[in-house]
Write a structure and sequence with these properties.
Length: 82
C-alpha cells in the first residue's frame, strides 16, 4: 500500500515532467520550474509534518523525489548548457 504522501510526490513529479516538456524551448523557464518544484516538495513536507505524519517517511520520500528531479533536470538541461 502506497502512502498518501508518496502519491502526492508522484503526482508532483508527473506534473514536473509534463511541464518540463512544455518549457523545452526556454532554459530560464526550465530552471524556474526546477526551483519551484523543489520548493513545493519542501512545502508539502511542512504541511504533512504539521498534520502529524512520521518524519522518517517524509524525509525518505522527499529525498527520493528530489533526487529523481535532480537527475532528470541535470541529465536534460546540463548537456545543453555546456
Amino acid at each position: 500500500m502506497t502512502s498518501y504522501f508518496k502519491q502526492c510526490l508522484e503526482h508532483l513529479l508527473q506534473n514536473y515532467l509534463f511541464t518540463h516538456k512544455i518549457y523545452a524551448h526556454d532554459r530560464t523557464l526550465q530552471a524556474s520550474l526546477f526551483c519551484s518544484v523543489k520548493e513545493e516538495i519542501d512545502n508539502l513536507v511542512k504541511k504533512f509534518k504539521a498534520s502529524g505524519y512520521p518524519l522518517a517517511e517524509l524525509t525518505y520520500y522527499s529525498q527520493i523525489y528530489k533526487n529523481k528531479i535532480n537527475r532528470f533536470y541535470f541529465a536534460q538541461v546540463s548537456p545543453v548548457m555546456c
